[in-house]
Amino acid sequence: VQLQASGGGLVQAGGSLRLSCAASGRTFSTMAWFRQAPGKEREFVTAIRIINSSTYYSASVKGRFTISRDRASNTLYLQMNSLKPEDTAVYYCAASPATQITSAVRDPSRYDYWGQGTQVTVSS
């Protein structure tokens, strides 16, 4: 089982990036993006429940970021618009074989598989 994240880079404030996470080896029931800035704990960004495509966002990214998944390629995406310097972090995709309940989707300990992380840097 492997999660391969890509798409990070350097962008100016107000710009956009799209992250990808290619999953292989199995299918998952809940997938998510987390991020970790230097000196901070890993934080929840967004998640999608595969069975019904329900999506969840942190307050800090709601309205700017969009999570999606391509079923055919088993790839998770994160479209990030209106980026801010405070979005600078290493972004990780995560996946769980279980359909997580709403209260659990934000808990990183619920995810069994993690990608290697991709750096996003937003300059002011």
Give the tags.
single chain, 124 residues, mainly beta, 7-stranded mixed β-sheet, 4-stranded antiparallel β-sheet, 11 strands, 0% helix, globular
Task: Describe what is shown at a glance.
Helices cover 0% and strands 51% of the residues. The protein is mainly β and 124 residues long.
Verbal overview:
By secondary structure, the protein is mostly beta strands. Helices cover 0% and strands 51% of the residues. It has no helices and 11 strands. Strands 2, 4, 5, 6, 9, 10 and 11 form a 7-stranded mixed sheet that branches. Strands 1-3-8-7 form a 4-stranded antiparallel sheet, with no helix packed on it. The termini are far apart.
Break the fold down into its secondary structure elements and pairings.
Elements: E1 2-6, E2 9-12, E3 17-24, E4 30-36, E5 43-49, E6 54-57, E7 65-70, E8 75-80, E9 89-96, E10 113-114, E11 118-123
Parallel strand pairs: 2-11
Antiparallel strand pairs: 1-3, 3-8, 4-5, 4-9, 5-6, 7-8, 9-10, 9-11
Question: Helicity range of the residues?
Answer: under 10%
User: What is the ordering of alpha helices and beta strands?
Assistant: EEEEEEEEEEE
The major beta sheet can be summarized as: 7 strands, mixed
Instruction: Output the structural class.
Output: mainly beta
Kindly report the average pLDDT value. 96
Question: What form results from the Cα inertia axes?
Answer: globular
**Tally of contiguous helical segments:** 0
Low-confidence sequence ranges: none
Beta-strand portion reads over 45%
The tally of strands reads 11
- Through-space gap between termini: 38 Å
Gyration radius, in Å? 13 Å
